[in-house]
Amino acid sequence: MYKKKVTIVVAFALFSLFFGAGNLILPPQLGFKAGSTWWLVALGFCISAVLIPILGILAHAKLQGSMFDFAKKVSPRFSLVYCYIVYLISISLPSPRTASVTHEMGIQPISDSSALLTSVIYFILVFLFVINRSKILDVIGKFLTPAIILILVAIVGATLFNFDFSFSENMFPNPFSSGILEGYQTFDAIGAVVVGGVIIISINLKHTQADYTAKRALIAKAGWLAGLGLFLIYAGLIITGAMMHKTFDADISRTALLSGISMKTLGGIANFFLSVLVSLACFTTAVGIVTGTADFVKGQFNDSRNAYIITAVVGCILGVLMGQFNVHYIIAVAIPALMFIYPITIVLILLNVLPDKYASKQVFRAVVLTTIIFTIPDFLGSIGFSETLSGLSKWIPLSKYQMGWVLPALLVLIGTNVISKKSIKQES
Prior knowledge:
Elements: H1 4-18, H2 26-34, H3 38-63, H4 76-92, H5 94-107, H6 115-132, H7 136-162, H8 175-184, H9 188-206, H10 212-242, H11 254-266, H12 268-300, H13 305-323, H14 327-353, H15 361-385, H16 390-393, H17 406-427
């Protein structure tokens, strides 16, 4: 058994893994628009942004392997394609978004320089850190998360004690599903699959004598502790946004809302520190994403240094091209990609968490294939074909909430297991 101190250290590492600075801009606006139904969007958001990612870590604890192991039960070739798609999305969307958040929160308030200039300088620095693999970011990272958390706790506390508990009308057609879909934008389920293996490797290196069961129990306890911390922070930011309905215009942007709340509750100095800390945290995230992607491609080409450098260059070029746009635009562009890859990722996480007797290769293949098929209408709807597919959508449960894959995947999971059990009984 591990000591409580070890569990807390791992829990904090997991919390830091998911606590991306870009994620902080999402919850306040959710609450701001949800008004009196803030608790519904909080529940939906925390399912996709907290529960699913933590289950992803539990799946890693069970597999104790790499990202490739998540989908290999479908087939090794499918798993490889899935890995490439996830890494491509990572360097094309969440990585550039960190530059955009940095510009809107850290640069724009003090300078009228262009977003393109910020993006170019930002990713030149990212490239230098990726190539040199400096440990400076690891040291900085240890102080960033605690500092940001302290400011956020102060913001939430100041709001709860100084503002009225009054809420506006809800602006969402369905607050619960809107919360779930906004949780996709955290990319944390993908983060669990991509980076979760790093936690496993770190534990294996530090605790070489521990057996499989002990390590799995450690990660489970630490995972739920980290999840509780994320839930409290996100829920606090959502209710904070909901209580600010009288303070800001209805069309305020996500970054402006977070900065405005900080300014209203703690003043200019705290808002300045928050902007600097968020910018630094964004930078470490971008370096981590580009480095992880370059490492993966390098491994596919016999540890080629050239493959690593070329991937880093491509990742930074994509960062500049996308990072010059505002956060709202990048979030909008990300929707189609997330509508396709997120359901597949969620299903892979849940299947890997299940006991092996309920998650055979046949079950994996059937459920993942079903998810892909029923995700296609949601994906096409997100790129402007919703009217064309309106007739089809009427026949798919939950399709109007962009979650048409949920019930078909669940039914196939149950049906495939029932059929498999019957086949086993007949053979015996």
